[in-house]
Amino acid sequence: MPKMKTHSGAKKRFRVTGSGKVMRQRARHVHKFQERPARQARRLVNDVVVAKSDVRKVKKMLGL
């Protein structure tokens, strides 16, 4: 049986913490920060936990 391949897009977008939670970056946290209010830019900095309904799909894509 061949090895299962990791989804290339998923490995760039998600990470798994030591406790097993799947984290993602917030939307709009890539560029154009000078066009956003400082309050919004600060809010977008922190990573958030992936929705419970999507965790199983994401873990499968990551090969976990």
UniProtKB/TrEMBL annotation:
Keywords linked to the UniProt accession: Ribonucleoprotein, Ribosomal protein
Biased composition range(s): Basic residues: 1-15
InterPro entries listed in its UniProt record: Ribosomal_bL35 (IPR001706), Ribosomal_bL35-like (IPR021137), Ribosomal_bL35_sf (IPR037229)
GO molecular function, one term: structural constituent of ribosome
Provenance organism: Ornithinimicrobium avium
Pfam families named in the record: Ribosomal_L35p (PF01632)
Gene Ontology BP annotations: translation
Assigned protein family: Belongs to the bacterial ribosomal protein bL35 family.
Region (Disordered): 1-37
GO CC list: cytosolic large ribosomal subunit
Protein's UniProt name: Large ribosomal subunit protein bL35
